[in-house]
Amino acid sequence: MSRLYADIIVDISQEKLDRTFQYEIPEHLQDHIQIGTKVRVPFGNGSREITGYVIDITRQPKVEAARMKQILGPESQGIPIESRLISLAAWIAKNYGSTMNQALKTVLPVKEKKKKQEKKFLVLKASKENAQQFLEACEQRHFKAKARLMRGILEQSPMPYEQAVNVWKAAPSVIHGLEEKGMILVESERVWRNPVHTGQRESIKKELNACQQEAVKKILEEWNKEKPRPTLLYGVTGSGKTEVYMELIETVLAKGRQVIVLIPEIALTYQTVERFSQRFGQGVSFMHSRLSAGERFDQFELARKGEISIVVGPRSALFTPFPNLGLIVIDEEHESSYKSEKTPCYHAREVAVRRGQVENARIVMGSATPSLESYEKGKNGSYQLLTLERRYENRALPKVYTVDLKEELKAGNRSIFSTLLQEKIKDRLEKREQVILFLNRRGYTGFVSCRSCGHVMKCPHCDVSLTSHRNGKLICHYCGYTIPDVQKCPSCCSPFIGGFKAGTQQIEEMVYRLFPQARVLRMDADTTRKKDDHEKILAAFARKEADVLVGTQMIIKGHDFPDVTLVGVLAADLSLNGEDFRAGERTFQILTQAVGRAGRGKKPGEAVIQTYQPEHYSIRASAEQDYPGFYREEIAYRMLMGYPPTRAMAAVRGACADENLLYQGLSYCKKYIEKIYPGEDLILIGPAPESVAKVQDMYKMVIYMRHQNRRTLVQIKDCLERYIAVNKGFDKMFIQFDFNI
Ligand code: ADP
Ligand code: ZN
Ligand code: ZN
After folding, report:
1. What is the dihedral of CA 298, 303, 309, 311, to 10 degrees?
2. Are 24 and 3 in contact (CB under 8 A)?
3. 323 and 284, same structural domain?
4. What's the CA-to-centroid distance between 477 and ligand 3, angstroms?
């Protein structure tokens, strides 16, 4: 047997991750030591015995082999959670292409260097009703300062002490007074910065309806099988998926196991927090993407010690080190925020399934608009596919009208609003109901289309939209195909061909011009610069301080506004003509979400979708809220073009300050790939400039690879990594791999 060496870290607080020590693995231990194993080693001059984790195993000694110390043996007491996470990191490094160090940094939290600051918080202690009564009593007696602070606390608890003093102008005596009355508590942050924490509550549980019960029953049956599959719960908006998750969570907690609930970055709203807190009380902790590394570390510490048993949070919450993980829920599983844009470009959906396998935890994902990847797995049986077809209490799905903007142009209407949408806005303003106007800018990158006939300029080879560039050219970002910009529509000769230009601000102005009496709130990048601007705007709209909310995709995610009875989608085509193969899927998702915002309360809702391509299947299917219909068309297109999920696809992305050098470098990569894998079943395209071709003076280019098997692409990546490492020419550029495009 040949000699093996292990790289070992002895301190897994992140600053020291780079410091590894190499030890020889004695022959008799070779079968017992893997990446992640916790081992005992002799350390330092006196060779005192300490423990560490194996993070890599190689055949290459870094120092003279004869001088290397040997591992004493594996730690015997069980497998610590760190071991499992380290082996998960190794899997991530291998499957997404990164160094072990980058993967470890993704998986393990950073310990905070600076001393924790003690911060004080005011927390509502009385029940909401008592607090409300007390507030009214204060108002009657004109205790203005007390009333003001009570109002503040009712809106936000916990409230930082400084905020009470500075914003709500509460003197210490006022705070003390409320504390005496038993209304509030002043707590130091022993609570480990747990971002939410409310005083009293009793567990509130809802009776599931028949469809929900059926879903829970089938999932529990699946869990009893020898090899339980992940579940995909496809349920229309408002069908009560969250109630199903909560029921399942309860069964897992009852077995003494823990739960991770992933939600898209933007969805951690007050509503989500309330729902989970009401049901599960103190055992649940919430992570949001703005937590500092140290705050995340603290939360993970709580989880490791068993002080919490549910974590609700974005992508990074997936790595919560629970000792006995029982379930991972992925809500809105189709969301793109589950994918990391940084190396390693892992996808939380895939990593969750992997973690589930390793730790014997169950996986449940849910969506009203599942990703094609997951639905296909549901169709072919590798996932359990369950459907909730109807809204809870049979509330009607909104009635949707599709307006053809070509017809509006013909009829002489050049405004951003179709005649129908104008009429409906007017009607809602009169009835004092609320309206959402949604500008669909997501994925918009400057495609060119004809306003007379709807023709879109596309790449003849890749069937994605060409993107107009400042140099007066139209370019395909998959294969690099380029043509000069057009002045006339190649299909109908109309001169009305060009890019789309209208922003949220213009829409707001337009609403004021047409309906001077309307009160409008606008939510876009400009009005949400500060940390809590989002919540403020949404809260104001929820309090009915405005009739119309205008905005980009931030306004259509997961919020529940019962008085919204009309949603207008202003430019459905913007995302439809994105320059990548997911444009149709993204459009369907966005439109379905947007439409689903209408009629969530007792009053039925309506939606108006304005488009130049009313016949496009993404538009038709979202108007009918017909996911299976959409899936059939979309999967046929993917199959025809060889796009995922019918084939695996990966990108080799390069960035470099020198454009020529970058092109050369990637061309060498392409030639190298062709040499090591001459098979015709591998499709290579590019190098082509990325959609954002230059960022901070770095040029960006990409090669795409497609093959039947993901594994083949991973093997090619392995070879390519070595090729890049040994060739000096690549020193001046960054190369990154991406397996989920
Ligand atoms: P989804 O997650 O599928 O969009 P939700 O779980 O948010 O749906 O449910 C939509 C609404 O219906 C929520 O207001 C929820 O409280 C309510 N709801 C769902 N199921 C029940 C139930 N079994 N009992 C009472 N209310 C329910
Ligand atoms: Zn035309
Ligand atoms: Zn092309």
Report:
1. 50
2. yes
3. yes
4. 7
611: Cβ below 6 Å to ligand 1?
Answer: no
Pick the residue whose CA is nearest to atom 4 on ligand 1: 238
The list of the chain residues with pLDDT below 70 reads 1, 12-18, 111-118, 188-204, 270, 442-446, 470, 500-502, 531, 558-559, 578
Residue nearest to atom 5 of ligand 1 (CA): 240
Cβ of 269 below 6 Å from ligand 1: no
Burial of 60 (0-12, 13-18, 19+ CB in 10 A): exposed
pLDDT of residue 717: 96
Q: Is 505 found in the same domain as 411?
A: yes
Q: Which ligand 1 atom is the nearest neighbour of the CA of 368? A: 3
Is 108 in contact with 17 (CB distance < 8 Å)?
A: yes
Measure 473 CA to ligand 3 centroid, in angstroms: 14
| 484 Cα–ligand 3 center, Å | 15
Under a CB-based contact definition with an 8 Å cutoff, are residues 608 and 614 in contact? no
* Gap from CA of 476 to ligand 2 centroid (Å): 20
Ligand showing the shortest atom-to-Cα distance for residue 496 = 2
Residues 137 and 30 in one domain: no
Q: Which ligand 1 atom sits nearest the alpha carbon of residue 388?
A: 3
**pLDDT at position 326:** 97
Domain that holds residue 270: 210-394
Q: Using CA positions, which residue lies closest to atom 20 of ligand 1?
A: 240
Decide: 20 and 76 in contact? Cβ < 8 Å.
Answer: no
Residue 176 in any domain: the answer is yes
> What's the 583 CA to ligand 2 centre distance in angstroms?
21
| Residue 558: predicted pLDDT | 58
pLDDT at 203: 62
Please give the pLDDT value at position 116. Answer: 53
Compute, in angstroms, the gap from residue 497 CA to the centroid of ligand 2.
7
Instruction: Write out pLDDT tens, residues 9-53.
Output: 887 665 666 678 899 999 999 888 989 898 999 988 888 888 888
Please indicate, yes or no, whether residues 264 and 173 belong to a single structural domain of this protein.
Answer: no
CA distances from 688 to 462, 476, 666, 684, 713 (A): 13, 8, 9, 11, 19
Ligand nearest to the CA of 367: 1
Predicted pLDDT at 193: 41
Q: Are strands 4-9 and 48-58 parallel, antiparallel or unpaired?
A: antiparallel
The two three-digit tokens of residue 120, written as one number: 């004080």
Whether 392 lines ligand 1, by a CB cut-off of 6 Å, is yes
Q: Is the CB of 367 under 6 A from ligand 1?
A: no
Q: 405: which 2 tokens?
A: 């903007």
Q: Is the CB of 243 under 6 A from ligand 1?
A: yes
CB–CB of 660/653 below 8 Å? no
- pTM, entire model: 0.81
> Counting Cβ atoms within 10 Å, is residue 209 exposed (0-12), middle (13-18) or buried (19+)?
middle
In tens, the pLDDT along 289-315 reads 777 777 788 888 889 888 899 999 999
Whether ligand 1 lies within 6 angstroms of the CB of 369 is answered as no
Q: Which atom of ligand 1 is nearest to the CA of 235?
A: 3
Same domain, 274 and 416: no
The residue out of 191, 221, 242 marking a domain boundary is 191
Output the pLDDT for position 283.
87
Report the alpha-carbon angle 571-405-510, nearest 5: 60
Please report, in range form, the residues annotated as the binding site for Zn(2+): 450, 453, 459, 462, 476, 479, 489, 492
Report CA(305)–ligand 3 centroid distance (Å).
53
Distance CA 542, CA 546 (A): 9
